[in-house]
Design brief:
It contains three helices and eleven strands. By secondary structure, it is α+β, with helices and mostly antiparallel strands. The strands form two sheets. Strands 1, 2, 3, 4, 5 and 6 form a six-stranded antiparallel β-sheet that branches. Strand 10 and strand 11 form a beta hairpin.
């Protein structure tokens, strides 16, 4: 009976030790996973977003009619024939381009542009450009000036200004020596921006630098 009791104690102790080891192992795995997730978020991985980039109006000709659709020459782009055009009619097409923007940890951006897509057709150039004017809007505003700097290569000096757009993207613009002296102590600058609005979601817009405000 004594030996049996001792065996039971040993067995119970072994089970306790095994459970403890398993619990500690699980805790270690969870901690390692947490550390891995934290590193991936702090490593400064690239962020990608898609923004409206530009619009244009081009002249085209109605080609083939296929059911309720039509082709627009010269590219044979298929569009709904909502205005009941006939083959050979001259039309004006409003086209749209968007961009995939990738920003790295240093806030440097790279851009991949889409192809032009026709989103709407008009009977006159005036109507097309009037519609486009609601999607591309010029504004004068103040934005952040990150700073100015100089570079030198083969005895040639170049000056640059780093600007932060309302979207948070940073752009570099060449400036002359007079502008460098004027801007080197400023934190804000007045500029001309072109707001490009998404035709499907007007509240989504991307502001592009178009020059210094006078």
């Amino acid at each position: 009976m004594i030996n049996v009791r001792k065996s039971k104690r040993r067995l119970g102790g072994s089970r306790f030790k095994l459970a403890t080891v398993l619990a500690l192992s699980l805790l270690a795995v969870l901690l390692l996973n947490a550390c891995g997730n934290e590193n991936s978020s702090e490593d400064g991985q690239d962020t990608t977003s898609r923004v409206p980039w530009d619009y244009r109006v081009i002249e085209g000709t109605v080609g083939d009619l296929t059911g309720s659709d039509m082709t627009i020459l010269p590219d044979n782009e298929l569009m709904p024939n909502d205005e009941n055009y006939a083959t050979g009619d001259k039309i004006w097409a409003l086209q749209y381009m968007d961009a995939e923007m990738t920003e790295d940890a240093d806030q440097r951006s790279s851009v991949n542009l889409s192809s032009w897509d026709t989103i709407k057709t008009f009977k006159t150039q005036e109507d097309a450009e009037k519609d486009m004017a609601n999607l591309k809007i010029m504004v004068t505003t103040e934005i952040d000036l990150v700073g100015v700097y100089k570079t030198q290569y083969k005895e040639k000096t170049r000056d640059f200004a780093i600007l932060e757009l309302p979207s948070g993207n940073r752009i570099k613009q060449p400036i002359d020596d007079a502008q460098y002296k004027e801007l080197e102590k400023k934190k804000k600058v007045s500029v001309e921006l072109e707001e490009i609005h998404d035709f499907a979601d007007y509240d989504t817009a991307y502001a592009k630098f178009r020059g210094w405000a006078s």
